[in-house]
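REQUEST FORM: STRUCTURE PREDICTION
Request ID: SP-0412
Submitted by: Lab K.M.
Chain count: 1
Length (residues): 181
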Amino acid sequence: MGLIEQRKGEKLHTRNIEISSYICDDETIVVEGKLLDNRLVTWHSISGEKHPPDIVHQMVIRLIFDISSLTIKDIEAEMPNTPREECHEITRSLDKIKGLKIAPGFTSRIKKTFGGTKGCVHLSTLLLTMCPAAIQGQWVYLARKPMTGFSSDLLEQYLLDTCHVWRRDGQLAKDVQRAMT
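STATUS: Completed
RESULT:
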C-alpha cells in the first residue's frame, strides 16, 4: 500500500469539472463547462455558524466559437450555487473575452483580465480548463471526415511542443509533417 493510500481518511471535498462540445452549425461549436464543488462534511463559517455538507460552487460557462479560427463569438455564465450573493455580480465580466482567439497567450490574457478582484478564481479556472477542450472539440469536429490538407498552422499553433509526444523533434510530429508534404 502506498503512502497516499495509508493517509486517506474521511473525504472532505470534491471538485468535478465536466466539459462537453456540441455542434452548433457548420461554422460554430458550443463548449459547455460545469464546475461543481461539494463540501462533504459538516463545516463552520467564519462567524462560527454550523452548516451541513452542501454544494458550495456550481458554475456553468457556455461559449460559442468559430471552428476555423477558434475565435470566441459568444459566452454566457450561470452560477446556480455560490457561497455569497455578491458572486453573481461577476458573471457578466466574461463578456470581455468575446472576439478573443483561443491561441498561444490566451491563458496569460485570461489571468490578466480576470485575476484577483477583477474576476472569480472559480470561473477563471473553469474557463482555462475549457479552452484545451475547445481545441479537442474542434479536432473531433474536423476529424469526423477524412482529413486532407492538414493545416500547418494547426500543427504549429496548437500541437507542436505542447507535450512530450507532440515535441517538435518527436516521432509523431515528424510523421505528421511527412504526411503533409
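NOTES: Residues 65 and 180 are 26 Å apart (CA to CA).
Reviewed by: T.R.
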